[in-house]
């Protein structure tokens, strides 16, 4: 079995694996890494990720540790799979010369903005931030709370309906995973997922396969209101249930302990969560739960805020080159940083162009010159950073709340269905712990 990158990602990127590209703090893209022959003899070739920060041939993203920062190719390699020879003019601007089809020299290739990206290993959290939305999805603050309340842990058998865009499915797969089942009867942790919409069902089935989650997530095309949760006529023996449906109360009748048709493990308590945006839906669900013998019914709404903690240096000035202290410290610091980044970018671009010409200085040179520029005082003596002047210790710590956190605000209803208790269980219990002794 090829391990799923969500469950056992390994340490390095590899061809065929899903990878999450971080473009900015809250800007993620999911890509599949492709093997390509890479740049040979000045030809840029193969799959290329084109972003607003520049172009990234997949050959530069393969076999590197997850979490690596990758700099853009010095040249915009253009559309996928096209071969173009790179040359430079006197002013070091790369041009694209005649391509294989023998067409006239193409127009100048633009210099990429030479930014960078981070290549991150897939996790349910990052998948939630980058997945293709087919429906509303459950976000991380909600599902992390839900999964612990319904006691999802390695080995748990969990029912989920509907699957929707698969955000919750991935998070629950990781929570219940305790190895791939060896055969059909191997009862390891598993997610039994149900989806009524055929198109979404098919897309989910494809994703499960391409994410190597087969055996951990089993998806059924099913209207659960009508047909319940049995799988191939057998009970999933679930102990955890999550319903993200428009009318969860309509599905509850199929989650009883009726022998022969119960999808629940008869020997253990079942923990349920339903996810509904309106209080009227909550009300109907709670009534139905009570009627069917569920206990410990309660409702929670997750309301999370992200706080950005910063140190504000209002009124703290550093001397400018004339010795005046008029400019705020953080402006000087920003200018110093910008200068450094610009210098690094120029060095990097020059090195890549030289590499294409076959006269590349070692990349190490770039790093060491960048390091040198870090220690050298910048022109105009901006931002002196010695022990007597610790800018990071100046000012007052403050925080601002950020409103951009994505949560699908819904009410979470939780309840517990105790294990089945038969006449025999009662007799056995009485024999073991007789009343009055
Ligand atoms: N929890 C999902 C996620 O995190 O990506 C999103 C679920 S989405 C809000 C609700 C899904 O329930 C839809 O895809 C819809 O097609 C499905 N659905 C609605 N009625 C259903 C039914 N009777 N049986 C099964 N699925 C149903």
Question: Radius of gyration, rounded?
Answer: 29 Å
Low-confidence stretches: 40-44, 78-112, 360-387
Number of helices: 9
- Helix/strand order: EEEEEEEEEHHEHEHEHEEHEEEEHHEEH
Percent range of helical residues: 10-25%
Tell me the structural class. Answer: alpha+beta
Distance between the termini: 55 Å
Number of beta strands: 20
List the quaternary state of the chains.
single chain
Q: How would you describe what is shown here?
A:
- The chain has 437 residues and is α+β, with helices and mostly antiparallel strands.
- The protein has helices at residues 124-130, 140-149, 167-176, 198-210, 224-227, 279-291, 329-357, 363-375, 423-432; strands at residues 18-24, 27-32, 43-44, 48-51, 54-57, 69-71, 84-88, 94-96, 116-120, 157-161, 190-195, 217-221, 240-243, 270-276, 295-301, 306-312, 317-318, 327-328, 396-402, 411-417.
- A hairpin with a 5-residue loop joins strand 7 (84-88) and strand 8.
- The radius of gyration is 29 Å and the shape is elongated.
- The relative contact order is 0.11.
- Mean pLDDT is 79; it is low at 40-44, 78-112 and 360-387.
- S-adenosylmethionine is lined by residues 135-138, 161-162, 164-168, 194-197, 200, 222-225, 244-246.
Keywords:
single chain, 437 residues, alpha+beta, 7-stranded mixed beta sheet, 4-stranded antiparallel beta sheet, 9 helices, 25% helix, elongated, binds S-adenosylmethionine
């Amino acid at each position: 079995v090829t391990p799923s990158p969500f469950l056992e990602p390994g340490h390095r990127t590899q061809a065929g694996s899903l990878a999450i590209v971080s473009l900015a703090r809250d800007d993620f893209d999911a890509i599949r890494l492709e093997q390509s022959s890479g740049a040979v003899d000045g030809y840029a070739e193969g799959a290329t990720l084109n972003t607003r920060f520049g172009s990234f041939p997949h050959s530069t993203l393969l076999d590197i540790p997850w979490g690596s920062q990758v700099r853009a190719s010095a040249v915009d390699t253009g559309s996928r799979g096209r071969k173009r020879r790179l040359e430079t003019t006197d002013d070091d601007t790369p041009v694209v010369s005649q391509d294989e089809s023998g067409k006239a020299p193409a127009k100048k290739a633009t210099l990429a903005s030479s930014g960078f990206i981070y290549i991150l290993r897939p996790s349910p959290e990052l998948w939630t931030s980058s997945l293709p939305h087919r429906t509303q999805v459950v976000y991380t603050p909600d599902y992390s709370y839900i999964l612990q309340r319904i006691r999802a842990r390695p080995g748990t058998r969990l029912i989920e309906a509907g699957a929707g865009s698969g955000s919750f499915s991935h998070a629950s797969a990781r929570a219940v995973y305790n190895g791939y089942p060896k055969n059909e009867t191997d009862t390891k942790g598993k997610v039994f997922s149900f989806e009524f919409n055929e198109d979404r069902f098919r897309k989910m089935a494809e994703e499960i396969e391409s994410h190597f989650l087969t055996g951990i997530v089993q998806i059924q095309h099913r209207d659960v209101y009508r047909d319940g949760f049995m799988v191939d006529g057998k009970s999933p023996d679930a102990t955890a249930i999550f319903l993200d449906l428009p009318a969860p109360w309509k599905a509850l009748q199929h989650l009883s302990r009726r022998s022969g048709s119960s999808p629940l493990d008869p020997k253990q308590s079942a923990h349920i969560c339903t996810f509904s945006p309106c209080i009227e839906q909550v009300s109907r669900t709670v009534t139905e739960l009570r009627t069917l013998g569920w206990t410990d019914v309660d409702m929670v709404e997750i309301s999370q805020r992200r706080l950005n903690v910063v140190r504000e240096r209002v009124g703290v000035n550093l001397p400018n080159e004339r010795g005046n202290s008029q400019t705020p410290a953080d402006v000087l610091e920003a200018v110093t940083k910008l200068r450094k980044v610009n210098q690094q970018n120029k060095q990097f671009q020059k090195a890549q162009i030289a590499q294409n010409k076959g006269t590349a200085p070692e990349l190490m040179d770039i790093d060491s010159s960048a390091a040198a520029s870090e220690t050298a005082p910048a022109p105009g003596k901006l931002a002196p950073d010695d022990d007597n002047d610790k800018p990071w210790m100046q000012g007052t710590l403050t925080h601002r709340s950020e409103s951009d956190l994505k949560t699908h605000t819904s009410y979470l209803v939780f309840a517990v269905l105790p294990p089945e208790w038969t006449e025999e269980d009662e007799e056995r219990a009485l024999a073991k712990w007789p009343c009055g002794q």
